[in-house]
Amino acid sequence: MSLFAKKLVAVIAAVLVVGALITLYIADWATSFPKEIAASTAPANSEGANLTLETVASAGPKYSPRHPDWVSYLVRRGGQWVRSTDYTVPANSVVHVTLYQFDGASGLRNPFLAQVQGTVGGTEVVDGKAVNSIDPEEASHTFVVPELGVFVPLPGVPEEAKNQCEFAPCEGSAHRTITFSFHTGGKGRFRWQCFVPCAAGWFLGNGGPMQTLGYMDGFIDVV
Ligand SMILES: [Cu+2]
Fold it and tell me: What are the start-end ranges of the H helices in the chain?
């Protein structure tokens, strides 16, 4: 084979490999979205909708066969925990969120995000106590909807706590309970995300589950 032919073969092979990788990226990652979960309707005597969430240090093989060790949010639907980060809530109403925090602290790089903002009363209730901020070092995750101005920092389970959860579902393990409410306005699709660099084992804690829909970020569909 001439040198030219060898070079030609190498270039064609490289183009094919890059093309295959782009195809894989589009087919497997860029077009995969978590399924949508509707918030349950609250009892008739209270206004708004309920959203029950939990955070877990590892999604586990049942909820994430491909990435069992990824940190994740789960949502309660019909009495079951489901791994989805796409939530549907009603427009012009109050969403009551109950969040069970099963993960430990990673700490916030930006302490500003340790303040509660945009919730009803400007507070969150942590284990029964209303607070308007937490210690930034204690943050395990945040629930933030930037476009709605909602910032809720979530303190982690203390390191020394007994009965820590290994992977989801974490029922019965050590946890913090956080509740808060926020108002929705008009219809729209709003991104929400965690701002704690909680992706263990990734560069600066920001890869993998922090940048893949369905783990530490998703959408709130206000309908
Ligand atoms: Cu997180």
Answer: 3-24, 60-63
Distance (Å) from CA 72 to ligand 1 centroid:
7
Find the domain containing 42 and state its range.
Answer: 35-222
Task: State in Å: Cα 46 to ligand 1 middle.
Answer: 30
In sequence order, what are the residues at sequence separation of 6 or more whose Cβ sits closer than 8 angstroms to the Cβ of residue 114? 108, 133, 134, 135, 136, 139, 153
pTM over 0.70? The answer is yes
Is pLDDT at 44 greater than 70 in this prediction? no
User: How many angstroms is it from 172 CA to the middle of ligand 1?
Assistant: 21
- How many angstroms separate the CA atoms of 65 and 161, rounded? 28
How many domains is the chain partitioned into structurally?
2
